[in-house]
């Protein structure tokens, strides 16, 4: 679904008027276009799919693969304010199939670049990797700071929300503990 930049520009102009600003003043006259272009970029996940990034390679490997500290930038669907942090993704391949490491980061981006709830995004990433790779198990952990909690409302800077989704054999306690140990980097 392509983003309707013209419609966004009109809406931003209306917001400027609604808050008592002059959308024609020098500093604001190009703001509607800039905001529309920004939304097209930061919400590009609506026109993307994990299928576009899931490249499989034949490799005889059945141990855990982890890509950790993947930067995420998303937009809270409740206030349309950013939240940002890190995603950690672990999976155990099945049937001698692995995917490129950069593909894991791209799948994270597909879901991050949408209006989101962190909980939903965590589950979407885990489900996509589990299904597309037919993995034996997947664990996704996201740690993020939400500007809706930092700059408005409760105003708690420095607070992080941590969510997880655990699937398949990653639910077994020894495997889960290994993944957590490796994700936290205590080797």
Automatic annotation (TrEMBL):
Entry annotated with the keyword Cytoplasm: no
Ligand binding (Zn(2+)): 76, 79, 148
Reactions accelerated catalytically: GTP + H2O = 7,8-dihydroneopterin 3'-triphosphate + formate + H(+)
Pathway: Cofactor biosynthesis; 7,8-dihydroneopterin triphosphate biosynthesis; 7,8-dihydroneopterin triphosphate from GTP: step 1/1
UniProt-recorded name of the protein: GTP cyclohydrolase 1
Assigned EC number: 3.5.4.16
Protein family according to the UniProt entry: Belongs to the GTP cyclohydrolase I family.
Primary enzyme class: hydrolase
Record key words, sorted: GTP-binding, Hydrolase, Metal-binding, Nucleotide-binding, One-carbon metabolism, Zinc
Entry-linked Pfam families: GTP_cyclohydroI (PF01227)
Subunit comment: Homopolymer.
InterPro entries: GTP-CH-I_C/QueF (IPR043133), GTP-CH-I_N (IPR043134), GTP_CycHdrlase_I (IPR001474), GTP_CycHdrlase_I_CS (IPR018234), GTP_CycHdrlase_I_dom (IPR020602)
UniProt domain GTP cyclohydrolase I: residue ranges: 8-181
Taxonomy, superkingdom: Bacteria
Organism of provenance: Desulfurobacterium pacificum
